[in-house]
């Protein structure tokens, strides 16, 4: 019984037996409670059903049928007895006619008088569940019983619990068998674990020690791989065997040399010298043991140092991971802000990504207006509701952005309680707890500042956060500069092309101002049907440039007063395609070019140049078609005078669904009918 594996197995077995036993006991108690609850519910439901049948028969005057009902119910094997007795305990009606007139058991009478409707009893070695339900006097019964009597009788139903007991016995047996099976499986599993991971390595180690004790050094080597500890132990043991083998071999070799050199000495001298030598060897072995212990201590100290170095390395790895995470965030932010040239989109993207990267609650970007020394709110998140997104703030001392812009340096305020020179309540309506702010610089000149406030986890901003924000601000400054240059380049292109359109219109008094009016109608209609701002911008550019293709049309044909021939019509219908070819080298007008090419397509597919239909025509081109047609009808032409406003609206209404998108046409008609719409003011002389 002194074996380690037997002790471990015994203790584990006792613990498992106790755990499985407690689990089995709890399951049996749960089964017993469930069966009792089932008996109570079944008894109550059966009693209610029988009582309702009795009340119905008594109300119908069929009192004789009550006894037959009880007799039929008594035939069920689970029903031991069913009877009706009065408040004195005398049986009035029973499934067994011989009981009529007898006194019920004292338990039934006491249960009724104490108000207990459901209870269990043991009788003649069997279990029963009794249900007592009073039958109350009702107005339908007043013909046979006076109204002064409240209870006509008590229905008593006795259910046999033998069937439930058999179920409980079966459940107990199943629980016992499953518990025993589980216990056997656990014991076998743990026994296998102990034999493989504990007993087997120990046996191998003991066998190796036995070989070592016999001097069988070659057979004393052991290799254990069942666990890291056993592997380490086997390695240390093998090293010790090798060291001991070397020491013994050296000792034997020295002793052999000493014996050869002293073989001529007398026998007693040899014995004395051998004893002295043996004593010296023993001392050497003791010294070697002491040295071995010192080496073991040195190895332990080395292990401690290695553990310390590993901890330092882990800390450095953590710092490196944090740095990599921040560099990754900066890289992703740089990709995001350099992916758009729209300034408004750039501002909002910059603020939102910066707030998420720094895990803050508030962030906003201010653009400096040097003339008035004020700043415009260009993008923000986390500000209180009601803040004007286009508001301007006067920069003055006490403001965080004022300090950063004035000094052209980033600012860290870990706690506003320690920065008395700055106001705690921002003029944007929020309370500042901890703040970092970095200026936006272009060639060392400030153009604004980005401010991040109040970390989401309620901690303070650190110097690492400030450094990260400074890097983001440098990237943002470059992105803002590039976006502004891109917008200036776009505007230069647009101004150039628009000048060409103006040159065309200037040569024709009849079309002068046509593009400008079409632009106003188109933009107003696009806003009415709630198109996106970027879509409205494309539509505005397309409306200005929609007739640029007329550069390639003969001016004489454009101003021709006579009826146009088929060849003339075909030539004029080339101007959308010519306009597309003119704008093709301008990459940023690619989508605008598609609108211009489609603005003479018809909703029913009868337009030109590609005969597109329905939704295949862009929404901008469908809007431009209505606005262009309206202005063409209400303007003077070489071959006719301007048509009236009402006539033009009637014509658009009649062409809805064929020439025009019906939804766009109806929206235009609704816009024209609104109070304040004056088409004449849209035309310029």
Automatic annotation (TrEMBL):
Transmembrane spans: 6-25, 176-198
Lineage: Bacteria, Pseudomonadati, Thermodesulfobacteriota, Desulfuromonadia, Desulfuromonadales
HD-GYP domain boundaries: 489-684
Protein name, per record: HDIG domain-containing protein
Domain HAMP: 196-249
Ranges of residues in domain HD: 511-633
Regions annotated as coiled coil: 282-330
PANTHER family assigned to the protein according to its UniProt record, in alphabetical order: CYCLIC DI-GMP PHOSPHODIESTERASE PA4108, CYCLIC DI-GMP PHOSPHODIESTERASE PA4108-RELATED
One Pfam family named in its UniProt record: GAF_2
Keywords: Coiled coil, Membrane, Transmembrane, Transmembrane helix
InterPro entries from the UniProt entry: GAF (IPR003018), GAF-like_dom_sf (IPR029016), HAMP_dom (IPR003660), HD/PDEase_dom (IPR003607), HD_domain (IPR006674), HD_GYP_dom (IPR037522), HDIG_dom (IPR006675), Mcp40H-20-like_sensor (IPR048904)
């Amino acid at each position: 019984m002194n074996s380690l594996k037997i002790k471990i197995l015994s203790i584990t077995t006792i613990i498992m037996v106790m755990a499985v036993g407690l689990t089995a006991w709890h399951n049996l108690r749960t089964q017993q409670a469930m069966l009792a609850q089932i008996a109570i519910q079944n008894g109550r439901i059966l009693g209610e059903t029988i009582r309702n049948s009795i009340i119905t028969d008594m109300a119908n005057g069929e009192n004789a049928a009550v006894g037959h009902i009880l007799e039929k119910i008594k035939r069920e094997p689970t029903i031991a007895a069913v009877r009706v007795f009065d408040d004195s305990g005398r049986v009035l009606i029973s499934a067994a006619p011989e009981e009529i007139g007898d006194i019920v058991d004292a338990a039934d009478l006491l249960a009724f008088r104490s108000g207990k409707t459901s209870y269990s009893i043991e009788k003649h070695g069997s279990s029963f569940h009794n249900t007592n339900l009073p039958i109350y006097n009702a107005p339908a019964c007043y013909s046979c019983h006076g109204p002064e009597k409240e209870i006509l009788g008590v229905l008593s139903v006795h259910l046999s619990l033998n069937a439930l007991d058999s179920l409980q016995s079966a459940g107990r047996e199943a629980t016992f068998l499953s518990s025993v099976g589980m216990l056997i499986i656990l014991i076998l599993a743990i026994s296998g674990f102990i034999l493989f991971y504990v007993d087997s390595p120990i046996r191998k180690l003991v066998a190796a020690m036995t070989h070592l004790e016999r001097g069988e050094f070659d057979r004393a080597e052991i290799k254990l791989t069942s666990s890291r500890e056993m592997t380490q132990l086997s390695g240390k043991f093998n090293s010790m065997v090798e060291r001991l083998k070397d020491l013994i071999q050296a000792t034997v070799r020295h002793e052999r040399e000493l014996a050869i050199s002293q073989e001529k000495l007398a026998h007693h001298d040899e014995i004395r010298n051998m004893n002295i030598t043996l004593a010296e060897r023993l001392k050497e072995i003791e010294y070697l043991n002491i040295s071995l212990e010192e080496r073991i201590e040195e190895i332990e100290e080395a292990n401690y140092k290695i553990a310390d170095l590993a901890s330092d390395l882990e800390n450095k790895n953590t710092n490196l991971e944090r740095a990599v995470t921040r560099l990754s965030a900066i890289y992703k932010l740089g990709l995001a802000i350099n992916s758009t040239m729209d300034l408004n989109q750039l501002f909002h993207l910059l603020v939102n990504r910066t707030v998420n990267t720094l895990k803050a609650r508030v962030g906003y970007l201010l653009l400096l207006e040097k003339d008035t020394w004020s700043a415009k709110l260009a993008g923000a998140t986390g500000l209180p509701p009601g803040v004007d997104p286009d508001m301007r703030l006067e920069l003055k001392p006490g403001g965080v952005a004022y300090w950063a812009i004035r000094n052209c340096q980033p600012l860290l305020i870990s706690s506003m309680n320690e920065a008395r020179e700055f106001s705690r309540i921002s003029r944007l309506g929020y309370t500042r707890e901890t703040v970092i702010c970095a200026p936006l610089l272009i060639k060392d000149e400030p153009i604004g500042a980005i401010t991040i406030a109040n970390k989401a986890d309620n901690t303070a901003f650190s110097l690492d956060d400030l450094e990260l924000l400074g890097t983001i601000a440098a990237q943002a400054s470059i992105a803002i500069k590039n976006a502004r240059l891109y917008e200036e380049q776009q505007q230069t292109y647009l101004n150039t092309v628009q000048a060409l359109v103006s040159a065309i219109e200037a040569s024709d008094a009849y079309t002068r101002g046509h593009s400008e009016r079409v632009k106003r109608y188109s933009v107003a209609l696009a806003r009415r049907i709630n198109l996106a701002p970027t879509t409205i911008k494309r539509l505005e550019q397309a409306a200005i440039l929609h007739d640029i293709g007329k550069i390639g049309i003969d001016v004489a044909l454009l101003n021709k007063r006579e009826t146009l021939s088929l060849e003339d019509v075909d030539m004029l219908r080339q101007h959308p395609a010519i306009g597309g070819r003119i704008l093709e080298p301008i990459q940023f007008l690619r989508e605008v070019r598609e609108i211009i090419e489609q603005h003479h397509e018809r909703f029913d597919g009868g337009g030109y140049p590609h005969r597109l239909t329905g939704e295949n025509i862009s929404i901008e081109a469908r809007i431009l078609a209505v606005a262009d047609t309206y202005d063409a009808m209400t303007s003077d032409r070489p071959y006719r005078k301007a048509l009236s406003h009402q006539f033009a609206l009637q014509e658009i209404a009649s062409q809805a669904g064929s020439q025009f998108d019906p939804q766009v046409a109806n929206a235009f008609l609704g816009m024209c009918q609104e109070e304040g719409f004056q088409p004449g003011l849209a035309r310029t002389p």
